[in-house]
Amino acid sequence: MFGSPAQLKTPAQLAHMERAGHHVATMLQRVREAIAPGIATKALDQIAFDYLAGVGAKPNFLGYHGYPATLCISVNDRVVHGIPDEETILAEGDVVSVDGGCTVTDEEGTAWHGDSAFTVIVGEGNESDRGLVAATERALWSALAALAGADRLGAVGHAVEEVVEAHERETGQRLAIVKEYVGHGIGTAMHMPPDVPNFVTRERGIRLKPGQVFAVEPILCSGSPANRVLDDDWTVVTRDGSRAAHWEHTVAIMRGGIRVLTAHDGGAAGLAPYGVSPVELG
User: Fold this and answer.
1) Is residue 5 part of a domain?
2) Count of structural domains within the chain
3) Beta strands in 122-255 (DSSP E)
4) Using an 8 Å Cβ cutoff, are 41 and 90 in contact?
5) H helices present in 35-89, as ranges
């Protein structure tokens, strides 16, 4: 799948994807603002559902292979695909990853997808968790920036590994990449070829071309990356109970660079430390 071709989009189709991406960005911002001690993850999911309903967008997680919610909310040792419920009540110090997306429809009735994720700590948190969350976010932006000047998709894995290694050198904190869950192509479906590994592989990956769109999503944990799926057939947890973080954006390959479709500023703020500016949609 890493070497599979990616769907190419026209500028008009990219504009529809950016419209979906901006809905995702606003949805996740509203959820982020509501995260606090005492709130149930089900209530956060309702905020996301209500927002999308209000703007006429459709949640693309809900019903996907039977998935029962608008968001995946993964707390502490839950790595990805945590199902929101009434029983999971957030507490001070929790590490909370929120993953969500939506579709918008073009004039011909084709649905276009957006997908994004973030991780926050409820309250102050401890030094280890702060390092985990910050390094994972840095891995995302480093990978996105690398795509701006790369010719192959494998630049993502190199960038993520470099951030993990640099973080250990600078702080002494060793983090692990969860390799079973990777990024993906996205467009007229949420998950499309090719896979986008968050680690270096023997293959360099496909050659990058304008019009390709990828969901880039590094997932790191503070202990062993070994994981398992719970009996609900969705929730992934670390086997050793260590905490995990997950960051994701949908990014378009443009002539002369990239544009982050799930950021209202096209990724300008996140890319700036790397000397990269987003390319405007033509």
Assistant:
1) no
2) 1
3) 176-177, 183-185, 192-196, 213-216, 219-221, 227-229, 236-238, 244-246, 249-254
4) yes
5) 41-55
199 is in which domain, residue-wise?
11-272
**How far from the centroid of its chain's Cα atoms is residue 273's Cα?**
20
Report the sign of the C-alpha dihedral through residues 113, 218, 7, 148, in that order. positive
Contacts of 109 (CB under 8 A, 6+ apart): none
Rounded to an integer, what is the distance from CA 4 to the centroid of its chain? 21
Residue 95: exposed, middle, or buried by beta-carbon count in 10 A (0-12, 13-18, 19+)? Answer: buried
| pLDDT band (50, 70, 90) for residue 1 | low
* 58 within a domain of the structure (yes/no): yes
Query: For residue range 115-155, what is the model confidence (pLDDT) as tens digits?
Result: 999 999 999 999 999 999 999 999 999 999 999 999 999 99
Taking a C-beta distance cutoff of 8 angstroms, is the pair 145, 123 a contact?
no
